[in-house]
Design a protein that fits this description.
With 176 residues, this protein is an alpha/beta fold. The chain contains five helices and ten strands; from the N terminus they run H-E-E-H-E-E-E-H-E-E-E-H-E-H-E. Strands 3-4-2-5-6-7-8-10 form an eight-stranded mixed sheet, sandwiched between helices. The protein has a two-stranded antiparallel sheet with strand order 1-9. The chain is globular, with a radius of gyration of 19 Å. The termini are far apart.
Length: 176
């Protein structure tokens, strides 16, 4: 009987940990989405970046992030309607206002950067050091403290005609 109760208790603990794990991952995407929306307001986009819809693209298959980003499609950046797109591969990437390069696609960041070079596209990486390897910004989720950390590459921002509000630099954990 005790063995049965111990197994049952262990099962309940494992199920509970699974739910906690799912909640933490969902929290990550919610925080990223909120932060990305704030970036749209703290970056002054070049003139061609203010035409048509404000396009946020995600490279690869990231259903949890896409589900959270979908909520932004009812919002605007200035007068532009936010449009969310998925790019299945690097070959599908086109110039957008923001391109998110998730961890699963990080090895392609240089190719993505080359594809949108000389445009006012902000590449956002999810990996620490990404802003020093081809992205303009890295939004890194720190599991230990359940918060986001921000890295910014000033040269990338200047080169791509993205004027950054000083508030953004003040909250960055790393500036390259």
């Amino acid at each position: 009987m005790k063995a049965f109760l111990n197994r049952k208790m262990m099962y309940l603990v494992l199920v509970g940990l699974l739910f906690v794990s799912l909640n933490v991952n969902a929290q990550k995407e919610k925080l990223q989405t909120a932060f990305i929306y704030q970036l749209t307001r703290l970056v002054e986009w070049c003139p061609e970046g203010k035409e048509g819809n404000f396009v946020i693209g995600v490279v690869g298959n990231e259903p949890a992030l896409m589900a959270e980003l979908a909520a932004l499609s009812i919002r605007r950046v200035g007068t532009q309607q936010i449009e969310i797109k998925t790019y299945a591969s690097v070959a599908d990437v086109v110039v957008s206002n923001i391109i998110i390069v998730p961890d699963s696609q990080f090895d392609n960041i240089k190719d993505i950067s080359a594809k949108v070079a000389n445009s006012c596209t902000l590449i956002i990486s999810e990996r620490a050091g990404g802003a020093n390897r081809g992205a303009g910004v890295s939004i890194v989720y720190n599991d230990k403290v359940s918060k986001l950390e921000l890295e910014i590459n000033k040269n990338y921002m200047r080169r791509n005609s993205l004027n950054v509000n000083d508030q953004l630099y003040s909250i960055a954990t790393t500036i390259y």
